[in-house]
Design brief:
The protein is elongated and about 170 Å long. It is α+β, with helices and mostly antiparallel strands. The protein has a domain of about 80 residues: 2-Layer Sandwich (TolA/TonB C-terminal domain). It contains five helices and five strands; from the N terminus they run ααααββαβββ. The longest helix is centred in the first third of the chain and has 21 residues. The strands form two sheets. Strands 2-1-5 form a three-stranded antiparallel β-sheet, covered by helices on one side. A two-stranded antiparallel sheet has the order 3-4.
């Protein structure tokens, strides 16, 4: 004897419903799993400070409407501009006669021919380098006489230096001119007593003319000369 199924208790009829319901639940869980975010906690020592809300004030600014700009008129070009013709520089130059009658701007052909032929008389002035003082001439300038006797006779020991017991050697340089005069007298060692320097310069200036230096052509020239004057108390 076969058992008969009750149609009201048949579970096969509800399988599609259960399948769709389960599919919806699984889809919802998968969606929640992908959308879920883990909150990140940040540690800080600062306490939260509640700030007062700042009210927002709306400000209306009225802007004047700009005035209408004047309309510009298009001016038609009345004159046609034509490019200037360029000159051909390769063309031969035409000879023209000089019409200037001003004598100040005219050239004497006779004088020009003399200059071209080397016939001219020009004052070139003094010999170059003649006014320049030479440090080492061919023949040095010398004192006209006995230099030591001159110093013994004319040198005066300053009283101030005698009181302070000042001694020393004064080195001097000067220029002997072509006529034998002395110029540009200067003390080389400035550390010597001022009174001794003044007396050395004075006795050099008071000396008579020297014999000037001579160059290789036998001509008198300006030349430098150095000397020393000894100041020593007995």
């Amino acid at each position: 004897m076969n058992a008969k199924k009750n149609p009201n208790l048949d579970a096969d009829k509800r399988k599609p419903v259960y399948f769709q319901l389960g599919l919806m639940i699984v889809s919802a869980c998968a969606t929640m799993a992908f959308a879920w975010r883990t909150p990140i906690a940040v540690k800080t020592d600062k306490k939260a400070v509640r700030t007062a809300e700042v009210p927002v004030e709306k400000i209306e600014v009225k802007i004047d409407r700009p005035k209408d700009l004047p309309k510009t008129k298009k001016v038609a070009q009345t004159k046609k501009v034509e490019p200037k013709a360029q000159k051909n520089l390769n063309q031969p130059i035409k000879k023209t006669k000089n019409t200037n009658n001003d004598e100040q701007h005219q050239i004497d052909l006779g004088e020009l021919n003399d200059l071209l032929n080397g016939k001219f008389d020009v004052d070139i002035g003094e010999k170059p380098g003649l006014n320049k003082a030479v440090k080492y001439p061919k023949k040095e300038a010398t004192f006209a006489g006995n230099w030591k006797e001159y110093l013994k006779t004319h040198l005066i020991y300053p009283e101030e230096s005698i009181d302070f017991q000042e001694e020393g050697d004064v080195w001097l340089t000067f220029i002997v001119e072509r006529d034998g005069g002395l110029t540009a007298i200067e003390v080389l060692n400035k550390e010597v007593s001022k009174s001794l320097q003044k007396e050395a310069i004075r006795v050099i200036k008071a000396s008579p003319n020297w014999n000037p230096g001579v160059d290789e052509n036998g001509e008198f020239i300006r030349s430098y000369k150095n000397t020393v004057i000894h100041f020593k108390l007995k």
